[in-house]
Amino acid sequence: MLAFGSLVVVSDQWAALPEDAVASFVGRDACIDCHRDQAAAHAGSHHDRAMALATDETVLGDFNDATIDHDGMVSRMFRDGDRFMVHTEGETGEMEDFEVKYVFGVEPLQQYMVEFDHHESLAEGEIPRVQVLRISWDTQRKRWFYLRPPDVADKLAPDDPLHWTGVAQRWQTMCADCHSTNLKTNFDPETGRYRTTFSEIDVSCEACHGPGSLHVTLAKSNKLFWDRNHGYGLAKLKGDDAEPQLQSCAPCHSRRGVLDDRFVAGQNYHDFFQLETMQPATYYDDGQIKDEVYVFGSFTQSKMYHKGIRCTDCHDPHSLQLKHPGNETCTSCHQHPAGKYDVPSHHHHAVGSEGAKCVNCHMPGRHYMEVDFRRDHSLRVPRPDLSVRWGVPNACSSCHVADSLDQVPEAVRPSLGEYADWLAAAESGDQQVKNVIEQTDRWCDEACDRWYGESRERPGHFVDAIAALRAGEPAGVERALALALRRDDVTPVIARATALDDLALSGEPQAAGIASQLIEDPHEHPLVRAAAVRTLRAAPVATVRRTLLPLLQDDSRMVRIESARLLGSSPFYQSLSASDQSQVDLALREVKSMLMITSDRAGSHMAWAGLCEQRGKIPEAIVAYETAMRVEPTMAGPRTNLAALLDRVAERGDSRATARAERLRSEELPLLARDAELAPDNAVVQYRFGLALYLSGDLSASLDQLRRAVELDPDNEDYRLAVRLLQDKLDEAADSADGR
User: Which CATH number is correct for 679-740, 1.10.760.10, 1.25.40.10, 1.20.1540.10, 3.30.70.260?
Assistant: First the structure.
């Protein structure tokens, strides 16, 4: 018989909260009493200061009648009693006074935010539309600067989406989700109003550990044991498996799409987010960072990731500071045998020099937002040999290219502030800069040959597949197919998914065969399986139907969504039986929920309209296009698509549809003209404007625009065909006018 004490222990261990108990957010004050050391480390961190109300304590910028001259106007920062004010151009184009309500970030820059559309129906704690000023404070050099959009040198028009009052500078759209805890956007597409809420204004305890109510209840219950159903009542971030911790950090430290906005720490990242693959605009062909990709996509490429290293091996999770100074961050692990790495025999540079710092060789970086230096977390060995072969960057050239600055014209030199500027200039067509980079790459490659001789290692790299495919080399397809199928412990899934996306883009027919193999393997990574679904766009209808219908019930949300989107499009949907169409319609509810997470963007409503249109649900498609126009009135696209749809409606005898289509095209034309002027090197934009001019009856101007599209993308057969057909039409008209 058990002693009374043993009975108490057993009873305590068996007692538990219900399995379906759901945790809620309780705020950091509920954590501090038991976790004072962690709270002290978090105080003042970048997470703690991610966002705050504008007060004397939080505002770092100079608001003592300071001015900044940009784009031919002078903006002024000043105080009005306790309020921080900015006098600058507003959304009407007039100079106005705006109150700074919130500050954003703390180092190396701080940004400032203004509330708009404050309506009486807002409840306490609800926030209306918030816009982020482009006038920013450099906290290191103590100066105001104007944060321009990338590649935009001209003054932004007040109705430009990139203007500080536009949708691209809207807090709710671009920033809020990762700078506050438990954020709910709460946008109403019907009224165009926000009722945004958060449980805490910054990145607090529960953003990383999950909602804490169950943990607090258990901690106060005086039980001998934690709960047998819920453990500590928080996300388990410390076990042998690194993935739970990495996936708790990844939502805010990755470039991704949102599949479901109900993620809390401890859940599977890949079931709520779709990591962006290595697109040419965001990554170089070998996976090095190009645009801002927020670390996770880079880190998953690293050997460290595949060895189970996690964020907190290098960073303190609460202060966010590195755990060790300088090279000790690396040598705290890489110290076997002693003195192997942090010595000239390894790095071949003088002790104490920039070249002797581990991060400069293995984590090169670049500036974003003008002053924000971010390092590449793919933690790679410098490979100048790959630079020589494929033109990708390398850490050696990132320093040494500046040694040849005198070989470029003097007028160009001021624009070459860092390696990224050299790369951008070469990519935009500056042949002299490109020649210097190539010369530097060869010099660095030869130096490595001298250092290592016959022992130099040149292991295979996925760039050999991706770069070859993108360059159109004969071996590219075979290499990309092999990369997509490479299931080992070192090949990054992001590279395999990228290979599949590139194969789909190329229209390679062999891709469908390997896609089916990958899709049907339930142990395959969802990012790869989802990319495999996308490669089936060019597959036979019967193959798509047979392969994807079962996936509408797949365990992976990402795979379900990709499958439903493809089956819901033409011609696949029309090939389905009525019963199968009903299944797809039900599955597309999840797609619609995903799209409406960003219901404040016209693109989401256009995507849904397109799916409705392809399934023959015309009234719903019309409503969605109208909503897109209401949400973003100055965005080009919805009117053109709706006009084309109305043309088909008119063919059924609805004369009102024709008149409305003409009005929509008339309204769209100036928007397309604006976009064509803002993006003169974008072939797609020029082509769309050319088609719009054709439909408006301005055939001569249309031909000029279409020719411009061909100049920008000479391999696009659609563009060339449009030019030929229009030229033939103009020639026929000219012959007819001459009486021939």
Answer: 1.25.40.10
